[in-house]
């Protein structure tokens, strides 16, 4: 832990930022997304500021810093440490972190298991009554928890896109999420499928055919639960490249109506925080933004292109690579 006199001292809040980043990481690991986002915002705010923030009162005046984090900032500056962070080091918290790393396990389930003395992956298999998804999550725990390099996301996308085009060359496919933002590492592969002047009902047939063909080619290795309980416009599962040492990775495929492509591109590019700020902006303008379009009083304003949506919101277009707040 370096003091404010240390290296890279262009920001006087470096020590605070260090500790807050560890808290953010902890909440990300335990899938406590709201808290993780709270810390992310506070860190962004501190990074922008030039003045040294020492008290909770000063901290709470920064945009994006609530009272609870403000108090933690004061504790860090006053004591050089944060008790809450140190308490994340206890064995139960580590178990909780391990268990929330299983695909399909949230903080509530993990907590229940830990309380029942179920603390390892083997414990879950033996006594935790895991769902199918959770069993798959345990079997491929490391591969699914590791972000894949961009080239691997590109390779999996390629397999899906080529197979789809073999079914119907008129399909339009886009690889979304972190990949479209240009990230060097991707948590999963997100693909949307659409086609001009074609109804979603027709695309459902395409999705069924596509996943079947990918299963036969052993690109798709597992179907996960959500695949079975939606209206058939979304598929979630696990896929890998075809070479023998390829790793299992999460794949999401979504069907999008052609008229909604702009709104879908915007939504599924993210990131989640950028999306939140766009929705807030829409709200300020008396409108509502979601993955289907921009609406006013329930009436569609625009949805066909991303440019139209930025326009209607009165802000300059932001290329996908820059959509990280
Ligand atoms: N999304 C969102 N809010 C959520 C979940 C998703 O706005 N709660 C949007 C923004 C995301 C996109 O969907 O960028 C894809 O979701 P992912 O969970 O796949 O996230 P990313 O692709 O951004 O990151 P990762 O590399 O971890 O997959
Ligand atoms: Mg993704
Ligand atoms: Mn995804």
From TrEMBL:
Domain of life, per lineage:
Eukaryota
Cellular component (GO) terms are:
nucleus
Gene Ontology terms for molecular function: DNA binding; DNA-directed DNA polymerase activity; lyase activity
Q: Where is the active site?
A: 72 (nucleophile)
**Key words of the record:** DNA damage, DNA repair, DNA replication, DNA synthesis, DNA-binding, DNA-directed DNA polymerase, Lyase, Nucleotidyltransferase, Transferase
GO biological process annotation, one example? double-strand break repair via nonhomologous end joining
Family from the record: Belongs to the DNA polymerase type-X family.
| Name of this protein | DNA polymerase lambda
Which organism is this protein's natural source?
Saitoella complicata (strain BCRC 22490 / CBS 7301 / JCM 7358 / NBRC 10748 / NRRL Y-17804)
The range of the complete sequence contained here reads: 559 to 883 of 883
């Amino acid at each position: 832990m370096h003091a404010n006199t240390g290296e890279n001292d262009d920001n006087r809040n470096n020590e605070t930022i260090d500790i807050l980043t560890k808290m953010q990481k902890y909440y990300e690991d335990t899938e406590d997304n709201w808290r993780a986002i709270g810390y992310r915002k506070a860190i962004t705010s501190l990074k922008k500021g030039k003045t040294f923030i020492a008290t909770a009162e000063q901290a709470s005046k920064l945009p994006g810093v609530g009272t609870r984090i403000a108090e933690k900032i004061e504790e860090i500056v006053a004591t050089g440490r944060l008790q809450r962070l140190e308490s994340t080091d206890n064995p139960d918290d580590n178990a909780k972190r391990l268990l929330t790393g299983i695909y399909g396990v949230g903080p509530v389930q993990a907590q229940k298991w830990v309380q029942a003395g179920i603390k390892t992956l083997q414990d879950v298999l033996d006594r935790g009554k895991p769902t199918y998804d959770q069993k798959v999550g345990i079997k491929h725990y490391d591969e699914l928890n590791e972000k894949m390099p961009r080239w691997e996301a590109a390779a999996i996308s390629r397999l899906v896109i080529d197979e789809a085009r073999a079914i119907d060359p008129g399909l339009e496919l886009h690889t979304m999420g972190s990949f479209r933002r240009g990230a060097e590492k991707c948590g999963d592969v997100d693909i949307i499928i659409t086609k001009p002047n074609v109804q979603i009902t027709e695309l459902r047939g395409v999705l069924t055919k596509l996943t079947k063909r990918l299963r036969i080619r052993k690109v798709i290795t597992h179907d996960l639960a959500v695949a079975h309980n939606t209206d058939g416009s979304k598929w979630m599962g696990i896929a890998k490249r075809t070479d023998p040492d390829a790793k299992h990775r999460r794949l999401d495929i979504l069907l999008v109506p052609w008229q909604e492509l702009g709104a879908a591109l915007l939504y599924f590019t993210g990131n989640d925080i950028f999306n939140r700020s766009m929705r807030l902006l829409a709200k300020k303008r008396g409108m509502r933004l979601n993955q289907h379009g921009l609406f006013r009083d329930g009436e569609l304003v625009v949805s066909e292109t991303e440019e139209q949506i930025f326009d209607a919101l009165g802000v300059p277009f932001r290329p996908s690579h820059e959509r990280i707040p």
